[in-house]
Specification:
Layout (H helix, E strand, L loop, with lengths): L1 E4 L1 E4 L7 E4 L1 H11 L5 E6 L9 H6 L3 E6 L5 E7 L2 E8 L17 E4 L11 H9 L3 E5 L5 E3 L4 E4 L8 H7 L3 E5 L9 H5 L6 E5 L5 E5 L2 E5 L13 H16 L5 H14 L11 H10 L3
Parallel strand pairs: 1-4, 1-8, 2-6, 4-5, 8-9, 9-12, 12-13
Antiparallel strand pairs: 2-3, 6-7, 7-11, 10-11, 13-14, 14-15
Helix pairs in contact: 1-6, 6-7, 7-8
Length: 292
């Protein structure tokens, strides 16, 4: 089950002036194309609710449940020197913490806010899912953002309880973020204090990344893409690939599963938006090409 809001990312390459994005959309489509049965509780504003991209999710078999929001996240993504900066045009309303009854007993719950829309009220759902044996993953980026008055999205340090994200992150077994999302130079040990039960994975684009749990550190290399068309969503595809591998194999952030996730991410940048999300066979071909 994937929980989060759809974002509308401003672009000149679409006649609407925007393209549908958001971690929940990318993660649910990725997991479905990689072989999982997926349910997605997706917050959408009025325009996003009718976006054509949502047909990609449904055609892949995602059980998509739209939750109408008065205000959904709208971003302007600016790439420079391999790093992204964002401007915000709209913040997001909070998603009500209520899983459909028929989704209980799920094998995995992935909470992926982009604008703080998954708050502390989701802790009870996460704990109930974990008690029933579900693997819990959190995309940290949307909880490490500040929407400044000048229109820029800036990163903020992780915050301890009673702030809303602390409890949800602390309940997770997998927490993933980009190095651009966490404060520069923050020691890994300090990050671990916020997610004591989790494997923390930090991604660094073409520079690979690292997974840490306790005293164990695994570095992984990026898998080369044939051409970069659109890097948006690559980190979300990576997270969904890692979560899928964890559910299917029982292995969390091993060398093999990290490489699988990196291969999925490398495929995703070769297409525009959600259309770039790869199938399992395409990821397999990418791994075979590299001897993985």
């Amino acid at each position: 089950m994937v929980i989060g809001a759809a974002s509308r990312d401003l672009t000149a390459d679409d006649t609407r002036g925007w393209r549908l994005g958001g971690a929940a959309a990318y993660c649910s489509l990725t997991a479905a194309l990689l072989g999982l049965r997926v349910g997605c509780l997706l917050g959408v504003d009025a325009l996003a609710s009718d976006a054509g991209e949502l047909a990609l999710l449904e055609s892949a078999g995602v059980d998509l449940r739209r939750v109408r929001l008065d205000h959904g996240p709208i971003f302007e993504n600016l790439e420079a020197d391999g790093h992204r900066r964002q401007r915000w045009r709209s913040k997001s309303d909070v998603l009500p913490a209520a899983l459909p009854g028929e989704w209980r007993g799920t094998s995995g719950l992935l909470l992926v806010p982009v604008a703080g829309e998954v708050g502390e009220d989701w802790l009870a759902e996460a704990e109930a899912a974990a008690i029933s044996g579900a693997r819990i993953g959190v995309g940290w980026q949307g909880l490490l953002r500040s929407f400044d008055d000048d229109g820029w999205v800036t990163r903020v340090a992780p915050r301890q309880a009673p702030y809303r994200e602390a409890a949800v992150v602390a309940a997770a077994g997998l927490v993933c973020a980009s190095v651009d999302d966490v404060p520069q130079g923050m020691p890994l040990a300090d990050l671990q204090a916020f997610a004591p039960n989790a494997t923390i994975v930090l991604t660094a684009g073409e520079n690979g990344g690292a997974a840490v749990r306790g005293n164990d550190l695994i570095r992984y290399r990026a898998v080369a893409a044939d051409a970069v068309v659109d890097p948006t969503g690559a980190g979300d595809v990576f997270l969904a690939g890692l979560m899928t591998a964890w559910i299917q194999s029982g292995e969390l952030a091993t060398e093999a599963t990290l490489r699988f996730a990196a291969a999925a991410a490398s495929c995703s940048v070769e297409g525009a938006g959600l259309a770039g999300v790869p199938t399992r066979s395409r990821v397999g071909a990418r791994l075979s090409r590299g001897g993985g």
